[in-house]
Amino acid sequence: MKLAVFDFDSTLMEGETLEYIAKEYNIEPLMREITRNAMEGKIDFFESLIKRVELLKGAKESKIIDICSNLPYTNGAKETIFELKKMGYKVVCFSGGYESATIPAQKALGFDAQFSNIFHFKDGFLTGMLGGEMMFSDSKGKMLKRLQTLLNISENDTLCVGDGANDLSMFQYAGKKAAFCAKPILKEHANIIIDNKDLKELLNFLPD
User: Fold this and answer.
1) Do the beta carbons of residue 135 and residue 49 sit within 8 Å?
2) Yes or no: domain 2-205 corresponds to CATH 3.40.50.300
3) Is the separation of the CB atoms in 151 and 112 below 8 Å?
4) Catalytic center residues
5) Would the pTM of this model clear 0.90, i.e. be above it?
6) Residue 38, SS3?
7) pLDDT tens, 87-125?
8) For strand 113-122 and strand 125-132, is the pairing parallel, antiparallel, or unpaired?
9) Distance, CA of 141 to chain centre
10) CA angle, corner 142, sides to 120 and 192, nearest 5?
11) In whole angstroms, how far apart are CA 104 and each of 8, 65, 99?
12) From CA 102, how far away is CA 17, in angstroms rounded?
């Protein structure tokens, strides 16, 4: 058995979930600026997460669920996951985003499991608060190490794919580290670099 772990926003999905939501509430530029600074490693990921969700306080739960259920997936994502599973990989999504988006994505793309964060809704509206498994800059690395231990999978049999600074923590535990249309800070630590928006190119770097 082997393990492939994908980031969600801007990796399996085109763009950032929060920016799609922010567009509905006319705060997309501010949201995009905070996201960019976090993905470039200029501000702490946890702090950026709190700031971004606070911006959406009062948003309708039904609107958020609708947007998250209709996000555009990256070209080649479904085909790549299908091929990886044929090659013996367990395919998992680690997202600093939200299960409102990753649960529909799991059904659409076919990966085996997802670990993400959770919006806090009350009386049908977003409170501006959240919880979950991927809230800190080192969360992905810690979760990856747990999965490797649980499944008895070595670093050499682990593939990680991401685009931003919060993906760095899982790279240290992976033999194959893929930077997909990524920020410079992630490319510096990658041994696979893909600059074309087609995830199928990842398969060119893997043995048959």
Assistant:
1) yes
2) no
3) no
4) 7, 9
5) yes
6) helix
7) 999 999 999 999 999 999 999 999 999 999 999 999 999
8) antiparallel
9) 13
10) 105
11) 12, 10, 8
12) 10
